[in-house]
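Bumping with the actual sequence this time:
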Amino acid sequence: MTDLDRLTAEKYVLLTTFRKDGRAVSTPVWAVRDGDALAVWTVTDSGKVKRIRRDGTVTVAPCDVRGRPLGAAVPGHAVLCGPAESDRVRQLLRRKYRLLGRLTLLGSRLRRGEAGTVGIRITLDQ
């Protein structure tokens, strides 16, 4: 089983981004497979988006809902998705997380609008 297969099978993954001074900031997020990459979804003005915009270096590890790691972290590179790609990530999340995913995405769209969230595509280092 590849790292990508292992991570996409998890309900939550711990996405770690890095500040300018090198300090790690970790956040548990939902993740889905998007072709040969891992995709996550977040609020457009979140800290992780700002850090990825500056430097796409990340690590990803399986975790529980509270962000406690359940396995080894895998290094990767993250890029922010455009509107069409972000919509595809939302569709993939709806499919994987079923009712909870649909309700969460609907609530987010009502609060923030479509532009209020963005997809993040993560290519794992091999």
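The tokens above came from a reply further down the thread. Residues 3-124 form a domain with the Pnp Oxidase; Chain A fold (CATH 2.30.110.10).
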